[in-house]
Amino acid sequence: MAKKVLKKKVQRKATVQTAAAPVVESAREIWLAGLGAFNVAQQESGRILEQGSKLFEKLVAEGSKIEQKTRKDVVGAIDSIRGEVESRVEGMKQQAGVVRQQANENWDKLERIFEDRVARALSRLGIPSKEDVNGLAEKVQKLAREVSVLDGKKGTAQSRVKVAVKAKKAPAKKAAAKKAVVGQVARKKVAKKPARPAASSN
Question: Are the C-beta atoms of residues 81 and 88 closer than 8 Å to each other?
Answer without folding.
Answer: no
